[in-house]
Amino acid sequence: MHGPTSPGWLLVVLCAATGAYCLLRMRSTLEEQRRTAGGEALMGFGMAAMAVPAAALAPPRWAWLAYAAVFGTAALHALWAARTGAHHLHHLVGASAMVYMAAVMASGAHAGVPVLTGVLLVYFTGYVLWTGTRLVPVAVGGHQGGVRTTGWGDRLELARACRLSMGIGMLAMLLTL
């Protein structure tokens, strides 16, 4: 993506760490966590790969087309999954935004369509603010000897923090577009 190198690398680290935690969530005992964790891991690692500063590595055009194909497939999967839950609509918007950014980068343009970029910025700003308000810790897990235990993959507040960091990352990427 376009933009300064240092913040770009910080964004890469943030997105990769988020993707790694989402992989851990795939081992959760909660079905809801497992169901969404795979798509969120793909999004985290994909955002990390796309956020590598252009000054450090300028991917060839075919790499951007591959990103568009991968996230286009993820968008279709999210559209199909949206039949069962509203959260998948957010995955649809996120994957579609990634397709849009990859298409802009593949075209060699240094800016996207201002109206579309603006709509995505408004959506992700609202999402970040809404998700940030939901970071209150949630008690989950079973009881062992009167003590409530929760595995790393079952911590809903950590999952929300990951979603928040990916939303912030998406804002950063859209701003540099």
What do you see in this structure?
- The chain is mainly α.
- The protein has one domain.
- The protein contains 6 helices and 2 strands.
- It has helices at 5-25, 31-50, 61-81, 87-107, 114-133, 156-176, and strands at 142-144, 147-149.
- The protein has a two-stranded antiparallel sheet with strand order 1-2.
- A hairpin with a 2-residue loop joins strand 1 and strand 2.
- Helix 1 (5-25) runs antiparallel to helix 6 (156-176), helix 2 packs parallel to helix 4 and helix 3 (61-81) packs antiparallel against helix 4.
- The longest helix has 21 residues, at 5-25.
- The termini are close together.
- The model has no long low-confidence stretch (mean pLDDT 84).
Structural class: mainly alpha
Mean pLDDT: 84
Main pleated sheet = 2 strands, antiparallel
Count, helices: 6
The rounded distance between the terminal residues' Cα atoms is 7 Å
Q: Radius of gyration, Cα only, in angstroms?
A: 17 Å
- Strand residue content: under 5%
- Helicity level, as a percent range? over 70%
The structural domain count equals 1
Low-confidence stretches: none
Tell me the quaternary state.
single chain
Attribute tags:
single chain; 177 residues; mainly alpha; two-stranded antiparallel ribbon; globular
Short summary of the structure?
The protein has 177 residues and is mainly alpha-helical.
